[in-house]
Design goal:
This protein has 69 residues and is an all-alpha fold. It contains 2 helices and no strands.
Length: 69
């Protein structure tokens, strides 16, 4: 029986996907925009990391892989 994601996992995935999408969205004119702040870069990096953690948890929960700890 496959485990269904919790609401929290769905929200984390949605927020992470939105963050990744926003980070990867092309800007109309990059020359006119200032460099991103450290806070924005950190926010984008953490959003990507949240998606990665969610993906790893889903893979480990599937039983196809086991944690090598």
């Amino acid at each position: 029986m496959e485990r269904r994601p919790t609401r929290r996992e769905l929200m984390v995935g949605a927020v992470g996907a939105a963050g990744v999408g926003a980070a990867l969205a092309p800007d109309a004119s990059l020359a006119d925009t200032p460099a991103p702040s450290d806070a924005q870069l950190l926010t984008d990096s953490l959003a990507v990391e949240r998606v990665m953690v969610l993906a790893y948890r889903r893979v480990l929960a599937s039983g196809l892989l086991t944690p090598d700890v």
